Amino acid sequence: MNKGVYLALFSIGLAQGVKIPLHYIKKKEWRPELFLGTGGMPSSHSAGVSTLTTYIALQRGLPTFDFALSLVYGLIVMYDAQGVRRQTGELTLKVNSMNELIEKIHKEESVEFKQQNAPKKLKEMLGHQPDEVIGGALLGIAVGVIGHLCTKKNRKATNFRLRF
Predict the structure, then answer these.
(1) pTM (2 decimals)?
(2) How far apart are CA 43 and CA 30, in angstroms?
(3) DSSP letters spanning 38-87
């Protein structure tokens, strides 16, 4: 694998890890399971694709096919993260609300009937708000720049050793 892939995977993991303390600061609730969940601040989707795109831009340059491909792919991923997936999450909230309403209406019915027909609650946190996508993109750009700078230093050190 190349360094761009490693950096993108690192960025995804970092974004997932940052969700836990940010959630704690905001809601005063410790939820380590957010590391494996979807949605939330920052978007790990955006962080990963932004890291890769930034790294490619700095390593290979803007007028390359690699950068163009990564940029278009990244924009599609970020659009999907805050568009389609977010709308799916909002629809899930409404479905879960309807299930709760149906349970209230059928409160008088037997417990056995409820247990047999009670649908499993759907996962509500699927997509991202626009600020979560932007937060992930900024994190990704930072990781991409730092990764490029570290790679650049390592390459200079290797070239120096090879000359002497």
Answers:
(1) 0.70
(2) 19
(3) SSSSSPHHHHHHHHHHHHHHHHH-TTSHHHHHHHHHHHHHHHHHHTHHHH
